[in-house]
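Morning!

This is the sequence you dropped in the shared folder:
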Amino acid sequence: MSMRMHQTNPIRSAEKARPVVAEVKPEYLPLTETFIYEYLRALHRVRPIVVAEEVKHLDLFPVEELVRVRRRGLTLRERAVDRLLANLLGLESARAYRYYAALRRVRPHLVHAHFGPTGVLVLAATQRLNVPLITSFYGYDLSALGQTPEWRARYGTLFAHGTLFLVEGPHMRQRLLRLGCPPEKIRLQRIAIALDEFPFRPRAWRGGPVRLLQVGRLVEKKGHEYALRAFARVRSRVRASVFYIIGDGPLRPRLEQLVEELGIAEAVRWMGALSRAAYREVAEHCHILVQPSVIAANGDDEGGAPTVLLEMQASGMPIVATRHADIPYVVREGESARLVPERDVAALADALLDLIENPERWPSMAEAGRAFVAERHDIRREASRLEALYGSVIEAPRATAPPVS
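The structure's back. Tokens below.
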């Protein structure tokens, strides 16, 4: 077991007095999970300490304190000792023991696990340490994993012993309820963004190519296939059009082949995975966001909604997306966004063409989108709500509970 603290500033005595919240995220932090970082950097009334095994992009997502749990480079003896201690403490695995040891040294007032499997991983440790556990669900952890008997059983134990469970919107709340989570333990905590990082610039088309944008990993649930097929229809009527795709993933070869078959290769720009700054620079020059999310064959879906929908609304970009998961909850349908059924290429193309052919509607859509995000998804307001929730959980009387077996 090894720990390492990263601190950009010395910890003042006043900071030490803040309640400590262990933010457990085994992989800190993929480029696609900025929604977690927005909260981490906005917390001021508590002292967040990130607990992670794999650490990457720390230059892009810096935190004041990070505890690293060793996963690689362990000797056979160290692994054997960790397994023995896990057995003695009633923990599921040597990995679970290493998280218990890290949390014991951090001495948190509360543990916040990010994603359902993380909650399962640290549940027994929090029970043994007698600290409350909040678990946030975000997507695949409910949609895909929630369909398997193994994970339904694991989640049943987590729901019984965990303190609270956070979801982004009403669609995810219903999923938790169907899996058996007690309704009194569920709270809505919206995804949120820093508005000042997305200056408001209502899009306008003054000649030249109209530029469409899609952002997301190249995986089935993001619906790239349907976006490309719809774009082919758009391009047949609006020749001066270009489609920018930000993101990478396992479907890229198949999607590139589809682009060739559709005869639109010269108009598709594969941007790959980009840093936040590079992504914003590309988005600044695009006109319409396309996010046609779908339920994948394995049941995986967005769970909540892609953060890019908030970011582009805030920046003044019209949206075309699908009625999927919590997407209707994070846009103003008919005002800031046009929503169509999943996998409906014709409806998707028609919505795009309607916007392209009526650019005079864009300014009002931009105004509606910015106002909506400012009202409901401003990180300053939402982080304050989360800290208030942390405080209520920390201050609540807590009986000593036996470890989960």
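Headline: The domain at 195-376 is CATH 3.40.50.2000 (Rossmann fold).

More detail when I'm at my desk.
O.
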